[in-house]
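Exercise 7b. C-alpha cells:
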C-alpha cells in the first residue's frame, strides 16, 4: 500500500518537473530566437524583364547566397521555406563577352524585397553573370492541317479562319530563318453541315532549342452554308474582230451553271457575268473556232461551269 502511494507521488512529481522543464526550454528558445544574428541564406533567382533582343539561356545561375542580419525566427523560416528573389535584368551590361549585373544594383533589388527588420550585409559574388544570347524576331504564318468533309450540298462559306493567324518567333537568326510556316496538328471533321470552331495545338519544328513561340495553339473556324444551283443564260461578247466585217457568233449565248448559297443566288443575275470570244487568240490562223473566256464573274460563289467552252464565228463583208 505504501509503495503504491510513493509511486503515485513520484509520478506526480515527474510530470510537474517535466512541465516546468518544457516551459523553461520554450522560454529559452523564444528568448534566443528573438535575438539578432548574422547568418547566410540561399534564395532562388527568378529573372524578369528580359530585353526584347535577348533570351535567357539554360546555364544561368539558379540561386544566390546572401549574408543577412535578422532574428532567429526569420532564419528558422528561411531554413524551412526557400525564398525567391525577382531579379530585373533589363539593365544588364555586356562585359568581356558576357552579360553581367553589378553588385550595387543587384544588392539594391534584393534589399527592396526583404522585410524592413532584415539587413543585407553582403552577397556571395561581386557580379551576377546571366546566360543571355542575342535573338531575332520573326512573324510566321500559321497553316491549318484540316481534313474537312462536308455533307452533300454544303460548302465552306468564305475563307477558313485561323486565330491568331501568325506566331511571333524569337530565337537565334540561324534557327528562325529556316521556319517558313507553322502547322497545326491534324484536324479531321466529317459530315459537317454547320459552322465549326476547334482549338488546335501547333506543331513546332524539332531542333530549335533556343527558340520560343508566342502561342502554342490557335482556333480554327469556318462558316458552313447550304448551297444550291442556278442556271444563267449569258450573251457572248466578241472582242478584237477585224473592222469592216459583220461578225456572226453561234451560239451567241452560253449557259452558265452557278453554285452558291441560296441567299447569294437570289442576288445574282446574268449581267454579273461577262463571257468573251477574243479573235486575237487566233494569231493569224484561219480557224473559225474560238475558246470562251469568263472575264467577269460574281463574288462569293462556290463553283461556275460553262456548258460550252468554244464557239464558231463567221466574218461577212457588208
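Sequence design result:
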Amino acid at each position: 500500500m505504501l509503495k503504491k502511494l510513493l509511486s503515485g507521488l513520484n509520478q506526480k512529481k515527474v510530470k510537474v518537473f517535466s512541465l516546468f522543464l518544457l516551459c523553461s526550454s520554450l522560454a529559452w528558445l523564444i528568448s534566443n530566437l528573438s535575438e539578432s544574428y548574422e547568418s547566410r541564406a540561399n534564395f532562388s533567382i527568378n529573372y524578369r524583364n528580359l530585353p526584347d533582343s535577348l533570351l535567357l539561356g539554360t546555364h544561368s545561375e539558379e540561386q544566390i547566397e546572401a549574408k543577412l542580419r535578422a532574428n532567429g525566427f526569420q532564419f528558422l523560416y528561411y531554413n524551412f521555406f526557400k525564398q525567391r528573389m525577382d531579379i530585373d535584368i533589363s539593365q544588364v551590361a555586356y562585359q568581356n563577352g558576357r552579360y553581367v549585373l553589378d553588385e550595387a544594383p543587384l544588392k539594391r533589388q534584393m534589399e527592396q524585397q526583404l522585410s524592413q527588420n532584415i539587413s543585407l550585409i553582403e552577397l556571395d559574388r561581386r557580379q551576377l553573370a546571366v546566360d543571355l544570347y542575342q535573338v531575332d524576331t520573326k512573324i510566321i504564318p500559321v497553316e491549318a492541317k484540316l481534313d474537312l468533309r462536308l455533307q452533300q450540298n454544303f460548302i465552306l462559306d468564305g475563307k477558313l479562319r485561323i486565330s491568331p493567324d501568325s506566331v511571333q518567333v524569337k530565337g537565334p537568326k540561324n534557327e528562325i530563318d529556316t521556319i517558313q510556316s507553322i502547322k497545326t496538328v491534324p484536324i479531321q471533321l466529317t459530315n459537317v453541315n454547320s459552322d465549326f470552331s476547334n482549338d488546335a495545338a501547333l506543331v513546332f519544328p524539332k531542333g530549335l532549342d533556343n527558340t520560343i513561340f508566342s502561342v502554342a495553339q490557335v482556333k480554327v473556324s469556318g462558316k458552313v452554308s447550304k448551297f444550291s444551283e442556278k442556271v444563267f443564260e449569258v450573251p457572248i461578247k466578241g472582242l478584237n474582230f477585224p473592222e469592216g466585217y459583220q461578225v456572226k457568233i453561234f451560239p451567241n449565248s452560253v449557259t452558265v451553271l452557278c453554285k452558291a448559297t441560296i441567299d447569294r443566288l437570289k442576288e445574282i443575275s446574268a449581267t454579273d457575268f461577262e463571257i468573251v470570244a477574243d479573235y486575237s487568240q487566233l494569231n493569224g490562223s484561219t480557224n473559225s473556232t474560238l475558246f470562251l473566256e469568263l472575264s467577269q464573274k460574281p463574288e462569293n460563289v462556290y463553283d461556275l461551269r460553262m456548258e460550252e467552252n468554244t464557239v464558231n464565228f463567221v466574218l461577212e463583208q457588208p
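Instructor comment: Confidence is low (pLDDT under 50) at residues 24-34. The helical segments are 2-33, 72-80, 103-113, 173-176, 262-267.
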